[in-house]
Structure formats: structure tokens, C-alpha cells
Amino acid sequence: MRSGFASIYSVALKPDAVFYLRLGIEQLVPRVVFTRGFDYWESGMDLYPGQDMYESFCNYQAALLAEFDRLSEEFKFETIDASADARSVFSQLKVKILALLENDSRKQFVSMLAMRANGGIMPKAEEDAIAAAARRHSVTRDLELVSRPFTAHTSNGNGNGHSAIQNLKP
């Protein structure tokens, strides 16, 4: 059956990289509790029905984590430890993404087109212009924008009709 799926997706583009920001449940629970609280869907309450949203959350997230780990090995995801602070995780991502952009085959393609237009000769000024255009690549610009200080998003609720603060009360 799996080979049938492979033939269906054979025309799909293969990504240059998939970044898997891995975070264990021990680190995930405090982040969720102290930001927005447990969400009905993120807790898998539709799959693991019960009265205990915490237990359901842990079970569901453990199942997701196991599947993402399996996919990561099978498809060779770039795994990044997301338990570090946001700036550190961002720095790791930025380095890896900029390395991808440096090896971008589109720059070589643009260079080849420019050389053909000039009879096979590329003036130094054009080489510099192509390099400058590559540095202004939209992904690079986006990375520069998101590297500026940011504020955390706060939510009014957790998706099940209760605010996060109500969930923390004994």
C-alpha cells in the first residue's frame, strides 16, 4: 500500500530541508500551562476522551512526538533542540537556512543566463549585482525581520471555553 502513496506524490517537489524543532513533553507542559493553558484539540480530548485534560495532553503529545521522531529518521529531518531559549533556536535555524540559500541553485541559473546574454562572458559588475541580489533574497530579508525583538502572543482562552488561569486553579 505504501508504494501506491509514493507514486501519488512522485510529482511533488522535494524540500531542500525540513526543520524539526523537537521538544520533550517535560519541557512542553510548563510552556503550555504558563502561556495559554491546555487546548481541547492539542490535548487530544477527541481521541483520548476522559476527565483529565493533563493526562490526555501528555498521552496525545507523546503519540505525536513518537510519530515525528519516526518521520524524522525516515525522511532525514534536520532536528533542532527546541528546549533552548528562543534566540538560540532562532540562531540555529538562521545558520542552517542561510547555508541553504548560499548553495541555492537558482543563483547558478541566473549566472548562467547572464553569461549567455553576454556571449559567455560575465563582467565583474554583473557578478557583483547577482551576488547583491542573492543577498537581498526575500528569505534572507524575512530572517532579518524576525530576528528583531518580539513579544509573546497571549490568548484569551485555551479552545475549550475556559481561560488558562481557570485551569490552574486548584
Could you characterize what this model shows?
The protein has 170 residues and is mainly α. Helix content is 56%, strand content 5%. The chain has 2 domains: 16-83, no CATH class; 97-148, no CATH class. The chain contains 8 helices and 2 strands. Helix 5 runs antiparallel to helix 6 (124-135).
The percent range for strand residues is under 5%
Number of strands: 2
Derived from helix and strand composition plus strand pairing, the structural class reads: mainly alpha
Helix content: 55-70%
SSE order, as H and E? HEHHEHHHHH
Number of helices: 8
Per the principal axes of the C-alpha atoms, what is the gross shape? elongated
How many structural units, i.e. domains? 2
Strand order of the largest sheet: 1-2
Instruction: Please compute the radius of gyration using only Cα atoms.
Output: 23 Å
Mean pLDDT: 77
Low-confidence blocks of residues:
164-170
Distance between the termini: 49 Å
Largest sheet: 2 strands, parallel
Write a short abstract of this structure.
The chain is mostly helical and 170 residues long. It is 56% helix and 5% strand.
Entry keywords:
mainly alpha, 170 residues, disordered C terminus, two-stranded parallel sheet
